[in-house]
């Protein structure tokens, strides 16, 4: 009995073990059948021990798939847009090459002699790496720094002002306005549609909504241009109800240098007709003719001088000066026009331009206080082209030599004053009176509206006496014997003179100032290229300026402003303002020194 009792529990034990194994096998097969398929050894999401069904994993996979599909679609759109922009840029550059370099094989010029990069996008990225954007550059001194200029939605704060720009101003030039608007829009695009590699998370507003930035969230920006690399922009945005600022850095890289055209310019036969309105100022005219003799007669030898003189006083002296130059240098290429009326610079230049009857000619509108070099005359020829371009050089205006050289016994000769220094003068970037332009362009910019009748009776009834060289006179009315004596042989021709009282200038402008801006704006409104640049060989000599009471309020304001700017530099004017304080300081210093020596 005892043996059978011990055998029964053993059988039960093995039976229970077999059932347990069978259940384990069934459970294992069930798990294999119900578990979702996974990639490799990837672990199932969720907390260990929780029971997840097929529907949960299918929903999770579908959500992730939709997320990646949306992201992939966004990346595809951006890639397509970049490809399109790159293709358009390549097409523009190719068309520019083909249009501007017909017959030049369409090859771009590179200063280093290398071919243009095959991948333009790669080259543009290399420009960013070269610029001082992410890593600073070692500079030799503080003068090597390229400073930033700052801007907001409405204002630009600039360092390089000249005399017509202000420390704070609205961007007036269209290209500057368009540039800043484009930069802000690009910054908003970066913030509102971030790339995957951007190190930022989708921020949410106070109510959990996604933050969308607009131009009103732009706080400030900074930009600077490295001439050989490109322009860097630092932009800062901030939502009113969010503490953090968003910072975007953009860079506009410059592309490789490209040859636009290459041609030969022959100026060996280009005559310049220098036209000068004049009233009295005979001493200044004497000094001008000394420079004219040295530069135009002895060096250049391709110059014609037209002087339009207003009034009778001083006319005989001007005639004598011209005759003296003629006798000394055998120079006959000049025209003297006498107008017995009030001085009007615009009218004088109009009459002088139309006094030329030998076809096309390059004209230089000049004042009696101008000093120029032979190099400037060539610059005038090189930068003006009929039907295409006019040249508006910026004059370097000299300060009052009595102030500049106050520590010397007397100012040096004029030739030694012609230096480009901060305390000796300034670039007169608000003046537009000196200009080089071809006669055909001048006549086209303001066509004749009134022409003098046969016999040279002016439309306004004023008489005109025209002398071409020392022996050719043309009369506007009947010439008296005294008038005819203005020319050396006393002979008066009967040719008619045609001039436009309206002309390229505003004839309503009387006396000083304003007429040059009128003509300048006409050229700006035309299809001609206006070349505006400082030139080293053109100086405006200082002279005492008198602002007449007859001027209009606007003209008088311009005259006083020009007078103040032309007197001395900021530092010299400051020394004059604080002269008493300086003298008192020097007196105290001398007293202290004497007291210490006596003690």
UniProtKB/TrEMBL annotation:
Keywords: Coiled coil, Golgi apparatus, Membrane, Signal, Signal-anchor, Transferase, Transmembrane, Transmembrane helix. It is found in: Golgi apparatus, Golgi stack membrane. Its EC number is 2.4.1.-. One of its GO terms (biological process) is chondroitin sulfate proteoglycan biosynthetic process. Residues 1-40 form the signal peptide. Pfam families: CHGN. Its main location: Golgi. One of its GO terms (cellular component) is Golgi cisterna membrane. It is a single-pass type II membrane protein. Residues 65-99 form a coiled coil. GO terms for molecular function: glucuronosyl-N-acetylgalactosaminyl-proteoglycan 4-beta-N-acetylgalactosaminyltransferase activity. Belongs to the chondroitin N-acetylgalactosaminyltransferase family. This is Hexosyltransferase.
């Amino acid at each position: 009995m005892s043996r059978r009792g011990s055998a029964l529990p053993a059988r039960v034990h093995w039976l229970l073990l077999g059932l347990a194994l069978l259940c384990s096998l069934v459970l294992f097969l069930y798990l294999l059948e119900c578990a979702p398929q996974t990639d490799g050894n990837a672990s199932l999401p969720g907390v260990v021990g929780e029971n997840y069904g097929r529907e949960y994993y299918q929903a999770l996979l579908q959500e992730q798939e939709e997320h990646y599909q949306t992201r992939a679609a966004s990346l595809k759109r951006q890639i397509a847009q970049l490809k399109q922009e790159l293709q358009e840029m390549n097409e523009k550059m190719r068309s520019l090459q083909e249009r501007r370099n017909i017959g030049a094989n369409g090859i771009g010029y590179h200063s280093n002699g290398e071919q243009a990069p095959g991948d333009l996008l790669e080259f543009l990225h290399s420009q960013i790496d070269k610029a001082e954007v992410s890593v600073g550059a070692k500079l030799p001194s503080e003068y090597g720094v390229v400073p930033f200029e700052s801007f907001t939605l409405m204002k630009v704060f600039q360092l390089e002002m000249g005399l017509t720009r202000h420390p704070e101003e609205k961007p007036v030039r269209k290209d500057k306005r368009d540039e800043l608007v484009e930069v802000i829009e690009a910054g908003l695009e970066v913030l509102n549609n971030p790339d995957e590699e951007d190190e930022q998370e989708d921020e949410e507003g106070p109510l959990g909504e996604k933050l969308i930035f607009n131009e009103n969230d732009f706080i400030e920006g900074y930009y600077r241009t490295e001439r050989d690399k490109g322009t860097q922009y630092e932009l800062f945005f901030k939502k009113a109800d969010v503490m953090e600022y968003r910072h975007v850095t953009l860079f506009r890289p410059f592309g490789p240098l490209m040859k636009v055209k290459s041609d030969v310019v022959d100026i060996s036969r280009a005559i310049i007709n220098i036209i000068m309105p004049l009233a009295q100022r005979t001493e200044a005219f004497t000094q001008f003719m000394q420079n004219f003799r040295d530069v135009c007669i002895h060096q250049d030898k391709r110059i014609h001088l037209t002087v339009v003189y207003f009034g009778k006083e001083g006319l005989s002296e001007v005639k004598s000066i011209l005759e003296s130059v003629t006798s000394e240098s055998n120079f006959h290429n000049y025209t003297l026009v006498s107008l017995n009326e009030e001085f009007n610079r615009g009218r004088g230049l109009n009459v002088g331009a139309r006094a030329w009857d030998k076809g096309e000619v390059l004209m230089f509108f000049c004042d009696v206080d101008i000093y120029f070099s032979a190099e400037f005359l060539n610059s005038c020829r090189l930068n003006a082209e009929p039907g295409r371009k006019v040249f508006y050089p910026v004059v370097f205006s000299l300060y009052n030599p009595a102030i500049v050289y106050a520590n010397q016994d007397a100012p040096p000769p004029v030739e030694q004053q012609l230096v480009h220094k901060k305390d000796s003068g300034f670039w007169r970037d608000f003046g537009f009176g000196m200009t080089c332009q071809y006669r055909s362009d001048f006549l086209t910019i303001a066509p004749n509206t009134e022409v003098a009748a046969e016999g040279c009776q002016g439309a306004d009834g004023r008489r005109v006496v025209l002398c071409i060289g020392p022996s050719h006179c043309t009369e506007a009315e009947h010439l008296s014997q005294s008038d005819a004596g203005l020319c050396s042989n006393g002979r008066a021709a009967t040719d008619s003179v045609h001039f436009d009282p309206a002309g390229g200038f505003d004839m309503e402008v009387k006396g000083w100032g304003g007429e040059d801006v009128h003509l300048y704006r006409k050229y700006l409104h035309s299809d001609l290229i206006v070349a505006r640049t400082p030139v080293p060989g053109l100086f405006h000599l200082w002279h005492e300026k008198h602002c007449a009471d007859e001027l209009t309020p606007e003209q008088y304001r311009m005259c006083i402003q020009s007078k103040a700017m032309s007197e001395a530099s900021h530092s010299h004017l400051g020394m004059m303002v604080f002269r008493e304080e300086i003298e008192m300081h020097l007196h105290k210093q001398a007293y202290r020194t004497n007291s210490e020596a006596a003690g």
